């Protein structure tokens, strides 16, 4: 019987549900571990889970400066997809999507993964051509993709503006039926729970303030809860990647930007798929609580502030109303921001660093939530074997020296444009 199952709830009915144990322990840090993961977001926790489960490394810890999932994991719009075109990205994100499909069972924790489909809208013939090309590349890689006509989009998303007056007429769209959404907090909690059960120490309120390097090799970290030694250290700190790398004297091809999202008051079921606008930065899905979740573009300047600003909210809502006029009758419930580590080519960095024993998992730009299980899976392999897995070979830091960039969007070397 699973720890979290209907049978547990029924059994608990006889004991006023007093049988539940904390989902993870709250240990004090030990003076030394075999490996440390810095960052208790989805990526750090997934990495620790797969290190323990697949590579037999149990004497490890995750160090989190605040609370689990308090970074971008708990701030994102939860869209999961693998509609990538370039070889270096496509197989990695598809592996991640395959892991999502069995994740609740693997973790023994419901991450509420909902494959409701993701539709990218096209508003011109040129955009339809680009989506046909992307869809074909995906299908050649064994990834599901369907090119939708205008009428097929209308059948799935009738709330979009299909009138003659539409400011951005819809020509069609690209659908990935296996894409969808998941419950972000549950992803962090599920990985934490499963990693803890394998013996991983998850230590919250423990900020890493320094990285110890001796003769080009990492030896441990300084934290607000004392020094901790380890021969292997993985950084998975998203928006703070540059700050942590600087502690080991590394300067990375990453800029930090702010990204916002917002949610409306709850509604009855209104939209049962994910739609992204092709003529501006706006995307929408409906949460299980009924709120419409919207995301937008970057704020446009570098920042480490974890809060949003009103001009971006206005811009997102303008795009939303242009696409779905009915939205103008809604009230916004709240909005928030997260710090994005934007790379020069828009693709993540997962691999070794020039410092022996120090590994990097970052540069997730807008899209790291969908990568959470895949990222942890390949990062664990990279740390345990001291070499990348085939799936993250193209995602190494070296590509910024060799020029083998993965510019999925074709936006050039400008982090804010990816
Ligand atoms: C508004 C918004 C919308 C998004 N929408 C999507 C989406 O729809 N789909 C998608 O795929 N992605 C999306 N993303 C991106 C996605 O959220 C991130 O790429 C992903 O969650 C990164 O996960 P992580 O575990 O690497 O980072 P985080 O969850 O940020 O975890 C990093 C952790 O490191 C900790 N940390 C930092 N410094 C230190 C230190 N010195 N010591 C110890 N701990 C430290 C932080 O407290 C944090 O908890 C969105 C992001 C935002 C902000």
What would you say this structure looks like, in words?
- The structure is a single chain.
- By secondary structure, the chain is an alpha/beta fold.
- The protein has two domains: 24-107 and 184-252 and 345-417, FAD/NAD(P)-binding domain; 118-177 and 255-343, D-Amino Acid Oxidase, subunit A, domain 2 (D-Amino Acid Oxidase, Chain A, domain 2, 2-Layer Sandwich).
- It has helices at residues 6-12, 42-55, 87-101, 103-107, 125-140, 150-156, 184-197, 241-247, 310-323, 372-385, 399-402, and strands at residues 35-38, 60-63, 79-80, 118-122, 146-149, 172-176, 180-181, 201-203, 208-214, 217-223, 226-229, 233-235, 254-266, 274-276, 283-286, 291-302, 332-343, 349-352, 358-362.
- The protein is globular, with a radius of gyration of 21 Å.
- The N and C termini lie far apart (45 Å).
- The structure holds flavin-adenine dinucleotide.
- The site of flavin-adenine dinucleotide has 39 residues, from helix 2, strand 13 and strand 17.
């Amino acid at each position: 019987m699973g720890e979290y199952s209907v049978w547990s709830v029924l059994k608990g009915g006889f004991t006023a549900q007093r049988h539940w144990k904390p989902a993870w322990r709250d240990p004090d840090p030990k003076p030394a571990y075999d490996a440390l993961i810095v960052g208790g977001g989805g990526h750090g926790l997934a990495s620790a889970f797969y290190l323990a489960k697949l590579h037999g490394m149990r004497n490890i810890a995750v160090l989190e400066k605040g609370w689990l999932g308090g970074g971008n994991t708990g701030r994102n719009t939860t869209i999961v997809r693998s509609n990538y075109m370039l070889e270096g990205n496509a197989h990695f994100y598809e592996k991640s999507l395959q892991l999502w499909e069995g994740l609740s069972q693997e973790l023994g924790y419901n991450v509420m993964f909902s494959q409701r489909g993701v539709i990218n809208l096209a508003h011109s013939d040129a955009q339809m051509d680009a989506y046909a090309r992307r869809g074909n590349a995906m299908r050649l890689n064994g990834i599901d993709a369907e090119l939708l006509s205008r009428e097929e989009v209308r059948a799935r998303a009738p709330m979009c503006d299909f009138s003659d007056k539409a400011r951005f007429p819809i020509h069609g769209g690209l659908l990935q039926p296996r894409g969808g959404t998941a419950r972000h907090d549950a992803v962090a909690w599920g990985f934490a729970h499963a990693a803890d059960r394998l013996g991983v120490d998850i230590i919250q309120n423990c900020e890493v303030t320094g990285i110890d390097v001796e003769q080009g090799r990492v030896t441990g970290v300084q934290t607000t809860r004392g020094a901790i030694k380890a021969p292997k250290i993985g950084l998975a700190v998203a928006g703070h990647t540059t700050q942590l790398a600087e502690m080991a004297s590394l300067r990375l091809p990453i800029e930090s930007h702010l990204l916002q999202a917002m949610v409306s008051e709850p509604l009855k079921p209104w939209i049962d798929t994910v739609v992204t606008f092709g003529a501006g930065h706006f995307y929408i899905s409906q949460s299980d609580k009924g709120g419409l979740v919207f995301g937008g573009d970057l704020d446009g300047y570098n920042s480490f502030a974890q809060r949003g600003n009103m001009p971006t909210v206005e811009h997102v809502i303008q795009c939303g109303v242009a696409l779905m006029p009915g939205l103008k009758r809604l009230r916004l419930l709240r909005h928030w921001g997260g710090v994005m580590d934007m790379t020069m080519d828009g693709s993540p960095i997962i691999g070794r660093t020039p410092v022996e024993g120090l590994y990097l998992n970052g540069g997730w730009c807008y899209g790291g939530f969908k990568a959470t299980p895949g990222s942890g899976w390949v990062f664990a392999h990279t740390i345990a074997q001291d070499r990348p897995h085939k799936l993250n070979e193209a995602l190494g830091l070296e590509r910024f020296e060799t020029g083998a960039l993965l510019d999925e969007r074709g936006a050039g070397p400008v982090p804010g444009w990816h």
